[in-house]
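Researcher: Please predict.
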Amino acid sequence: MYTLQSTNYTIEIGSLIDSSFSKLLDAQFKNSKKIILVDENTKEYCLEYLITSFSELAYAEIVELPAGEEFKQLDICLQVWETLTEYHIDRNALMINLGGGVITDVGGLIASLYKRGISFINIPTTLLAMVDASVGGKTGVDLGNYKNQLGLFSFPKAVYIDPGFLITLDEIQIKNGLAEMIKHGLISNINHWKTLKKIILNNERLTSELIKDSVNIKNQVVISDPFEDNDRKKLNFGHTIGHAIESYFLDINKPILHGLAVAAGIEIESYISFKMNLMNQNDFEEIKEFIRSIYPKLKFSKENFDQIILFTKQDKKNANNQVRMVLLKSIGQAITDVTVSEEIIRSGLKNYLDDEFL
């Protein structure tokens, strides 16, 4: 079992059976009502294992949400709050978020606002949630098709990352989470980047050690800046464009996986870094070639640029009506709060579609 200390909670990576999960339930929540939040996928593939493995959860209430980013909305939270009220859930209760990034984001928000806050634990079941969404204390929902516009920082009692859940995922879901691991290497750890490249290009399986390294990179950034005032902003690399593209596809009712949008965002923002003379061409080409070796090119056209650019203007890093991005100085080194013009963004989108320098 590998244990990381975060801001005011622990992250354990390893078999859930061997973790402190059972002890925590018994020590702090023995007499508390317990709610397990799942979506239709984790209900089918993960819930039975959790309940049968831990007798403390025999009488837990199960709350199921529909799966998908399009359901990451405030009205879903309202429905759950009404359900918790009907179940007479009090402030001493514990919510266990069993699922991917949508479940940990939404579940954390639901728990944090219900009766001014009940305790929650994250048990991520997707690679994306393991290496990113479940760690760091960000909770939230989308506002219409604008990503994560409503939310707050709220830290769980603990996060339990059991790589065994990854056997329930198909290849595209692994790629979904891999985008965040790639980002971690690009912003602060060139060795992580090199190791990921070697493993993926050799068609090898991701190891628990690599997951641990990726979580550790994010955790160290979060500890240094829990509320995203400074250094934590670099975790948003690839996300200004990535979120805008994701919002565009939500807007046309063709939702795509978050990691696929982020992968496109990584390539485009790397090009912007090169175009603005922050990063050299060789680094950009290396990033582009690796991203292209894993991810399909997303299908949108030049006619959609205005709509995508409009979504970038809702990014939370923006200031003074200017789009601010996290860009790269080199592989392994990011720079935050770079003002980027609409012209440069348009150039990046065009380069992604046309694959030529402008």
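Model: The domain at 175-354 is CATH 1.20.1090.10 (Dehydroquinate synthase-like, alpha domain).
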